[in-house]
Amino acid sequence: MTVPQLLLCLSLSMLCISSKPTEKKDRVHHDPQLSDKVHDDAQNFDYDHDAFLGADEAKTFDQLTPEESKERLGKIVSKIDEDKDGFVTVEELKAWIKFAQKRWIYEDVERQWKGHDLNEDGLISWEEYKNATYGYIL
């Protein structure tokens, strides 16, 4: 190996060694956020309300007096307590939050479906989708 080739190899080796490592990609599937609100219990409980009740129901609770809110939450807690032992376990609470989020997703899908099924035949054609999404374009 000649001196210029050796210098070139050494230079490339040093460049590779001193270069910044490539950024690792996160390959873990993370659960979606339970709310688009900031999760900061020191400031407010909006995130918790969305996660616990679902976004639409949380908006309703924001309009209630504290007494009405407490009464309605008591009724919801009875639904969460699946084994009816008078206590809500972590698992029961997790199941309720998942239920509330799925309910919101299904209701949103139903709204979207109705908005796209313009002729109300239970099917969405490409024309219906295109018109509902982009408006009628000649």
Task: Compile the SSE list and pairings.
Blueprint: H1 3-18, H2 46-53, H3 55-62, H4 66-80, H5 90-116, H6 126-134
What is this entry, summarized?
The protein has helices spanning 3-18, 46-53, 55-62, 66-80, 90-116, 126-134. By secondary structure, it is mostly helical.
Count up the domains: 1
- Order of SSEs, N→C? HHHHHH
Radius of gyration: 27 Å
- How many β strands by DSSP? 0
- Poorly predicted segments: none
Helix-strand makeup class = mainly alpha
Instruction: Choose one word for the global shape.
Output: flat
**Biggest sheet features:** none
The rounded distance between the terminal residues' Cα atoms is: 70 Å
Q: Please work out how many helical segments DSSP would assign.
A: 6
Nearest-integer average pLDDT: 78
State which percent range the strand residues make up: under 5%
Helix fraction?
Answer: 55-70%
Structure description:
One of its GO terms (cellular component) is endoplasmic reticulum membrane. The chain is mainly α. It has one domain (37-135). It is built from six helices and no strands. The longest helix has 27 residues, at 90-116. The relative contact order is 0.06. The mean pLDDT is 78.
What keywords describe this structure?
138 residues; mainly alpha; 6 helices; endoplasmic reticulum; golgi apparatus
